[in-house]
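Q: Hi! Curious about what UBX domain-containing protein looks like structurally. Here's the sequence.
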Amino acid sequence: MPAEGDVQTLHEVTQLPIAACQRILSAHNNNLQAALEAVLSNAGADGDLSATSSSLSSQPSVPRHGSNGLRRRTTAAAASSASSATAAAASSSSSTGAASTAETGRQHQPSSAQLTSSTASSASSRGSPATTPTAVDRTWRGLLFSFLFDATFNVLECILSFFGTLVPGLDLLALLPRRRHQRSFVEMLPDLARGAPAPAFADADFDTVKREANRQCKLLLVYLHAPRHADADSFVHDTLCAPDVVAYLNETFVLWGCNAETTLGRRLSRNMQAATFPFVGVLLPKSGTPKLVAAIQGALDAATFLAQLRGVCERVEPLLVVERTEREQRMQTQRLREEQDQAYQESLRKDRERQRLKEEEERRAREEEEAAQRAQLEEQQRKQEEEEKRKETKTQLPPEPQEDEERILVAIKLPDGSRVKRHFRPSEQVKVMYDFVFSHHDQVTGAFTLYTMRPRRPLSDKDARVADFCPNNAPTMFTCHLDDA
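A: Let's find out. The predicted structure is below.
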């Protein structure tokens, strides 16, 4: 049975169908070098595939996953002469020649004349080399240019990726043109599904998907897709997109796919120790780094793949139960703590409100007391000033006229109903009457006004003479009224 890596390498170099490459290797005793020489020596007279054969003749073996450089270095001549090379290789096998020719005919549909001509060309050119120095030089120049381009591009990718990690949210890799095989898996999924319902792979970065799986407490399924692997496309269409598999995946897992040829894909391949592709990893969500609990590798049919997934889930379910239980306990503890904190804050708020009201009441009482003291002090000061003014006014009051002098008897009714009498000179001003009332009676405080009896009119002109309000200098009665009463 030919090795899978040898079949894949021969398929990528010659662009022949997988089945034909298997039969060619079987015909040459699973010797990749002999099979390549047989195919390339019968590719035609242009010399390109012969040059490729010469470059391969110096390699003792081809690794299973080490043919990426060879894939990029395949020339256009290998693809154009694939039909004739298939016929030549098929003629070298006596037991499986007819089956190989039939398989090749289904893929390339060559005519009978082409098959006959190719067989004859193979027989005539098997022992003679077809490589020319010009073709070899052209091939090596192409290989060198491809190597330098890929190396430069990869170095630039690494530099931009490093500087992109220094600034969160800055994607410097978007400045580079993206190569075809570096598309994200979500972008490739519609083409790979070929119209069939596909699993709901998350279109988000890996950290976001990990947080979502941890939030839902569900297993995280990571699919690493190798675009240039022989079984990758068929695995997606035939296995992942099978109806039973799609329903089970969407119900049980948080799904995320990644292109294994991107920088992140290569890192995940190393971390999860992917030995072959297709690769499916099942991770147990954790608050920190998820734990890889199962790895399903290789191209499996839908039934086998689904059975292995169910076995993984049955094995991991106790861990999920423990995780859910611990999470529920943490949530209950957190809710209890939040309720206690809320009750404490409410109690603290009420205490602060009571303290505020108490302080407000004390402040208001203190202000009222201070205002009363201030008013009392002001009243005392006013009375003292008024007493001093009354004494001063009394000293300045002119003496009462004697009996032998011309005088008028004036009676004044005070606010409390009592009466006071005094003689005034007719020529004295009304102001003297005001000073007399103010200086001799404590109940007359502040502003006051004297009025005549009949008719009632105020003595507002204090510069007027007393005789003006006492007709014929006869005794006269006046009343005293406080202005603020």
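A: A fun detail: Residues 4-131 form one domain.
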